[in-house]
Amino acid sequence: MQVVKLEPQEFLDTARTWLDQHLIDANVLETRATAQIRFKRNNDYYVILEDQTVVGVFTVWTDTNGLFIPKLSDPVVDTMRAFCDEHLKIQTIEGPVGCVDRYCQGKETEVVMLVSVYVLDQLIEKTGPGSLIDATDLALEDNLVQTSLDWTAAFANELNMPFTPDRESQHRGLVRGAIAIYSVNNKLVSTASISGGGQVGRIGCVYTPPQERGNGYASHTVSLLCKAKLEKFKHIMLFADEMNPVSNKIYQNIGFKKVDSNKKVKIQ
Description:
Elements: E1 2-6, H1 8-14, H2 16-21, H3 27-39, E2 43-50, E3 53-61, E4 66-68, H4 74-87, E5 92-96, H5 97-103, E6 109-120, E7 131-132, H6 143-158, H7 167-176, E8 179-184, E9 187-195, E10 200-207, H8 217-229, E11 235-241, H9 245-254, E12 256-267
Parallel strand pairs: 4-5, 10-11
Antiparallel strand pairs: 1-2, 2-3, 3-4, 5-12, 6-11, 6-12, 7-8, 8-9, 9-10
Helix pairs in contact: 1-3, 6-7, 8-9
């Protein structure tokens, strides 16, 4: 097998058949590669070839030396590990539990997070006292943009994730409907986002300020966002921290079904 590093567009073109056959597993890679083409982000993308056929893919977040992998066969994982050990200084790895465990055999590791992978089976609509804000004509300087930035930063902080504020990017997300804000009686109470570079949309950044929690606002926000995007995406998926029973229950009650478990570990 051969490991080849590609530019984002070449990666998407070369791996298209493989990506289309692994819509859920490869969603993160496809979404990030598509975003990198548009917004000039800096991650590295690789394909693993056998007889000139793509048999696996992976990416490295260059700012953290973090490896992200979809579900791969054992021989492909072994090939990837040999390549990474020789050429890259990987500090974290995230992906399906079995693949991560195989990659980390013999390495000293620390579990950072266990994540449930959910796919929307059949949307169970949730009615509530509020509605999503129509941000189609939102101005860049509007306070709603700053509120959205603040909530995204708070969400990232709760998960110990890096976040670099980008007001223009946040504004684009709100205008395109990729970032939803839920309002009750003209008061902003919850947010959720959706991203997707192909047939799969991925829910992310589901956040309700602490003082507004316990009212079902997150359920209403995600339910309405999914309803608005059902025609655009063939599948809608999300990741949920397995140690957070509240969020897992929210997604299950909306109609999401668990299809896999992912694991993120730090390599000592």
